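Slide 14.
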Amino acid sequence: MLLNIYIEDRHYPLDVPEALLTDAEEFFTRMDSDMDKGWQMSRLWVEHPDGTQRCQIVAEKLMMALNAENPQMVSLMGGYILSRLPGVKGVRIDACGEIQETEFILGAGAA
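Slide 15: predicted structure.
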């Protein structure tokens, strides 16, 4: 499955194997459990992150994994987004530290 990642003027097409979504479900469930306790999203504490907010949190982790050149973590974070946000084609990650400004591209338009 393809997830187009946009950070500032950079584009990273990420091909996540379909099997990873199934194989990593236990890992994704643990991530959800951690976020169930609330999460610091930039300057805002979110007691109960919703589905979009969870994907914004994970997108920040995805950006950090890209910066650290950690391909396994990049695939896992991309897989989480693909598994939790049906129809997602891409993500525009805010690189200025404002998690809430991260946007998702749904449907056919991934440019």
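Speaker note: The radius of gyration is 13 Å.
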